[in-house]
Amino acid sequence: MTAADPAQGPIHAFAIGCSAGGLNALHAILPELPEGFPAPVVVVAHLGANDGGNMAAALRRDCRLPVVEAEERLPAQAGTVYIAPPDYHLLMEADHTFSLSADAKVLNARPSIDVFMESAAEAWGRSLAAILLTGANADGAAGMAAVKANGGLCIVQDPDGATAPEMPDAAIALGAAHWIAQPDRIAFLMISLCRGRGGGFPE
């Protein structure tokens, strides 16, 4: 399902947000990305204090791309998957390096998907694609709206079949979805978008 396509132009970075059921959705997407994928992929998931390393390790076993935890002042480099560390908000700076914040939780979450996507929208503008997956609250909807307002592209997991549809439903209700897709289609879309935008959902 598609909304109006945004203007043409390649995507240079991806931001992915998820919560309940997110690891399964990520396993349907990230292992399909090839070595040398020409963009950084940043994952912000609602994690317990001890879960960040577990998620990175679980994804690392199956991914062809390196999977690392984002750190203060670390530059976001193409061909790498970055996981937001637990109990910190992750932000993207104008020079495309990460920063961490211990500010109060947003929608009862730290890291907050909204916080990262809003900063990433400012940093990358039209060259950012944001992906919102399964989750049990509305975190991420405002961030997706910010990405769209800054000219970026927004992909939302189809709520049908999502472990927790509340998160994608909230983004769709805000009109913050250019594409709505099942996870097993999203990796192909990501690869296509690195080559150029527009033209509808790949068949």
From TrEMBL:
PROSITE patterns noted in UniProt: CHEB
Statement: the UniProt record of this protein carries the keyword Lipid biosynthesis: no
Pfam hit, one: CheB_methylest
CheB-type methylesterase domain segment(s): 6-192
SUPFAM superfamilies assigned: Methylesterase CheB, C-terminal domain
EC identifiers of the protein: 3.1.1.61
Enzyme class: hydrolase
GO molecular function, one term: protein-glutamate methylesterase activity
Keywords of this entry: Chemotaxis, Cytoplasm, Hydrolase
GO biological process, one term: chemotaxis
Record-annotated active site: S19, H46, D139
Protein name as annotated: protein-glutamate methylesterase
